[in-house]
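Severity: low
Component: inverse-folding endpoint
Summary: output formatting inconsistent between runs
Steps to reproduce: submit the following structure tokens with default settings.
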């Protein structure tokens, strides 16, 4: 697995990163049989030209919606609005994960602590996931980054790579960026309510058992590390959210594990969703062997 992380402090720097990203094209597929070269007329190979490798096979009409194209549309929307931004682009093999934060678009979560609002985009060239966009937050005091996929209104893109991708997705990106710039007040309300909502535990073991019940798709070792980062038996929902995101921001976890943790962490902010305290871990009875 190859990975590269590039940070940018201005929109121009973001554009410069986009311009140097890998080039993708669909090329014909040939096979040899009995000394004869045969061209496949039904499928082609999505190829990373820059790295000289085939990512996947595709239909003959499959569009090239590479990282340059996808993030190029994002760049144009930001440029049209004269947005001041900073962030990072992480490339892992043939997937990109882009975090963009809007300068000056922030809310207060403590006397000397602010949370920046932004957007995140994922683009795959291996057909394992879709082109995705969602809200993103960054807590300055502890450098926690967190995806916001459900709590912010009108802030989700989840589009399969299909033949009409190039015409269909740009208007979606336009509306998505527009919505993201209007969500500061909504985010402030979410943060304030989460800071007021307290979950009380009797013991650290009780807290761990409860967290294991929340993170049902996440390995126990990750949940233990998250729980160990909470230094009170009466954390707020905001504390639970930040402990989860501190772990994914400062420890090496795969993109898929991070996505699972982010989704549960975000659910902690929903004060209408109960967090049921689990006194003891449920253990399935051993089968009786006769």
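Observed output (run 2 of 3):
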């Amino acid at each position: 697995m190859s990975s590269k992380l590039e940070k940018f402090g201005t929109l121009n720097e973001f554009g410069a990163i986009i311009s140097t990203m890998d080039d993708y094209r669909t090329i014909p597929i040939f096979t040899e049989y009995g000394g004869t070269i045969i061209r496949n007329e039904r499928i082609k190979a999505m190829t990373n030209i820059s790295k000289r490798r085939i990512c996947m096979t595709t239909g003959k009409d499959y569009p090239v919606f590479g990282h340059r194209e996808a993030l190029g549309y994002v760049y144009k929307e930001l440029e049209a609005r004269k947005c001041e931004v900073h962030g990072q682009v992480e490339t892992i093999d043939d997937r990109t994960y882009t975090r963009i934060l809007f300068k000056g678009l922030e809310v207060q979560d403590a006397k000397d602590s602010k949370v920046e609002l932004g957007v995140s985009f994922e683009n795959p060239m291996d057909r394992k996931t879709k082109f995705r966009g969602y809200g993103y937050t960054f807590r300055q005091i502890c450098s926690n980054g967190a995806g916001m996929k459900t709590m912010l209104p009108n802030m989700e893109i989840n589009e399969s790579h299909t033949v009409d991708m190039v015409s269909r997705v740009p208007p979606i990106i336009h509306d998505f960026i527009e919505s993201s710039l209007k969500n500061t007040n909504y985010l402030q309300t979410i943060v304030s309510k989460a800071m007021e909502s307290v979950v009380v535990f009797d013991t650290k073991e009780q807290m761990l058992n409860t967290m294991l019940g929340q993170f049902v798709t996440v390995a126990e070792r990750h949940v233990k590390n998250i729980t160990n980062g909470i230094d009170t038996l009466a954390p707020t929902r905001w504390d639970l959210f930040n402990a989860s995101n501190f772990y994914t921001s400062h420890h090496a976890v795969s993109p898929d594990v991070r996505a699972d943790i982010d989704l549960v962490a975000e659910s902690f902010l929903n004060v209408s969703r109960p967090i049921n305290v689990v006194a003891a871990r449920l253990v399935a009875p051993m089968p009786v062997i006769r």
